[in-house]
Amino acid sequence: MSDYEPHITVGHIVRHAGQSGSAGREAAIMDVAQDLLLRHLHDLGLLDELAFKGGTSLRKFYAGQAGRFSIDLDFSVADIGTPTESVVDLLREAIEGLRLGVFSYAITERRGKPSLVVESTFGTTGTLDAKLDVNPPPWLEPEARPWVPLPIHSTYGGPLPLIKSVRIEENVAEKIARLNRTTTARDVYDLVWIREHFRSSPAEWCSAF
């Protein structure tokens, strides 16, 4: 049960997706559904022991509409003594069967790993899914970040809270390290955007480690 009453329409979703086509519309639906879910988990206190990370956190807390849509939910536990499996179980309990506004949520297993499943009447398929990962703790102290303001946020029925997130320096270092194993367009896009919008280069940030 939520204290908020979102009022989100198809028109809001279309405007949020911009010129990104049908695939972008599906990503926009998941993006909005995850905003509401993150707020709900924060209000339950379940994010107190977690730090949000990855491309999705970069878009929500740094790039906003200028960033690419990213729908994977990646977290790190904040404390080295916290078992990741226990956190996944708590998230599963909180998410399974949850309904926020027009969105219904569930957790499924794919190849032994959890995925977030979202249902709504907005998409062409009705059901969307995204990877859900809980990782070991970050090297650097996480920081609480505000959302980059977007027009869609005015339809959420209330404010969005600060979310504890992995520092951008560590996000960058992970993306650069991953380039040594595999090159993805997503990581390259994120690194180029970061280089264009921050004075320090990604390579300089890696020296923090």
UniProtKB/TrEMBL annotation:
The source's domain of life comes to Bacteria
InterPro entries linked: AbiEii (IPR014942)
Against Gene3D superfamilies, the record matches this protein to: JHP933, nucleotidyltransferase-like core domain
Q: Which Pfam families match?
A: AbiEii
The entry's protein name is Nucleotidyl transferase AbiEii/AbiGii toxin family protein
Taxonomic source organism? Xylanimonas allomyrinae
Upper classification of the organism? Bacteria, Bacillati, Actinomycetota, Actinomycetes, Micrococcales
